[in-house]
Specification:
Catalyzes the attachment of tryptophan to tRNA(Trp). The protein is mainly alpha-helical. It has 13 helices and five strands. The chain binds tryptophanyl-5'AMP. Tryptophanyl-5'AMP binds next to strand 1, helix 1 and helix 7.
């Protein structure tokens, strides 16, 4: 089976609809015919300030949501990044072959650093994409299913793999990003031209996996649309309605055309009501299962530890190979 790697940051209590559609929904399908590694990337999370009292709980909650959403921790390897030291170790080596200008061109870094200002921006945030490259390359992953916002980071990973291979000899598999066409980017319901994100200014446009159904319904009913009252998919002219249609299609397994046809001639209220049912129908069992898993944190921690053991075996072997290629003296 081809190898697959992906991850989500444990930077909030609940994952959101963008993570669900951009990542989890694909992961669930792909795990069947891939040897899949799904990581909770806590090393990435601390590139912006995290409350140490909350980080461990968020990490566990994120893992519980992976499982609740259908990731099978006996078939796939589901683990926590900081449990496998090889990630940080390979990242160091890759840092030394990454150009300063190259890292500076990452748009996510440019966005975040301009938001926080240079003084509040950590060097960790700057080298964050290099750590992501280490994640992927340690597992010889061929495919990396992500949302569109991670495309550039996977491109950098490919460049680094090729550079390392040509400088030090064939070592890494060059991976490919796997990005769904219409749902690569889910937008904020209040601000449908910016992507749905945990760092949104307000939570009203952010649909959370662990929200109560009544909260989810309210947020969907209040989604921003437009004034021409026609249900039609057109990203430029009708970003709000198009976002709702794309979400509906992704979760119901239909095409956008089918959903648009079903709602042709109906009102925005009908579309929102229908969408609320689809989202709640999808999220409710996931939410219930996640909360159930979180009732037994010790069991969850044991499962993560066992999976980290499996991940380490693969990661340590790749790291040893990379160290040897670079010329480090082997510790006998
Ligand atoms: P993160 O934690 O920001 O997001 C996790 C996944 O969710 C996708 N996503 C979205 N997809 C569609 N619409 C949205 N509005 C939306 N928001 C988020 C992201 O594209 C991602 O797939 N650097 C990564 C985590 C990471 C990683 C990796 C991913 C670390 N190492 C190795 C793949 C492979 C990140 O911050 O994702």
């Amino acid at each position: 089976k081809p190898r697959l790697f992906s991850g989500i940051q444990p930077s909030s209590d609940s994952l959101h609809l963008g993570n669900y559609i951009g990542a989890l929904l694909q992961w669930r399908e792909l795990q069947r015919d891939h040897d899949a590694f799904f990581c909770v990337v806590d090393l990435h999370a601390i590139t912006v300030p995290q409350d140490p009292k909350e980080l461990a709980a968020k990490t566990r909650r994120t893992a519980a949501q992976y499982i609740a959403a259908g990731i099978d921790p006996t078939a796939s390897t589901l683990y926590v990044q900081s449990h496998v030291p090889a990630h940080a170790e390979l990242a160091w080596v890759l840092n030394t072959i990454t150009g300063f200008g190259e890292a500076g061109r990452m748009t996510q870094f440019k966005d975040k650093s301009s938001r926080y200002g240079a003084e509040a921006t950590s060097v960790g945030l700057f080298t964050y994409p290099v750590l992501m490259a280490a994640d992927i390359l340690l597992y010889d992953a061929e495919v990396v299913p992500v949302g569109d916002d991670q495309r550039q980071h996977v491109e950098l990973t490919r460049d680094l793999a090729e550079r390392f291979n040509s400088r030090f000899g064939e070592t890494f598999v060059v991976p490919k990003a796997l990005i769904q066409k219409d749902t690569a980017r889910i937008y904020d319901l209040q601000n449908p031209t910016s992507k749905m994100s945990k760092s949104a200014d307000s939570v009203t446009g952010l649909i959370l996996l662990l929200d109560e159904p009544s909260v989810t319904r309210k947020k969907i009913m209040r989604a921003v649309t437009d004034t021409d009252a026609v249900i039609r998919f057109d990203r430029d002219a009708k970003p709000g309605v198009s976002n709702l249609l794309a979400i509906y299609a992704a979760l119901s397994g239909q095409t956008i055309e089918t959903v648009s046809a079903e709602y042709e001639g109906k009102g925005y209220g009908d579309l929102k009501k229908g969408l609320a049912e689809v989202v709640i129908g999808e999220f409710e069992p996931v939410r219930a299962r996640a909360l159930e898993l979180l009732d037994d944190p010790a069991e969850l921690d044991r499962l993560l530890a066992a999976n980290a053991g499996r991940a380490s075996e693969v990661a340590d072997a790749t790291l040893a190979k990379a160290y040897e290629r670079v010329g480090f003296l082997r510790r006998v």
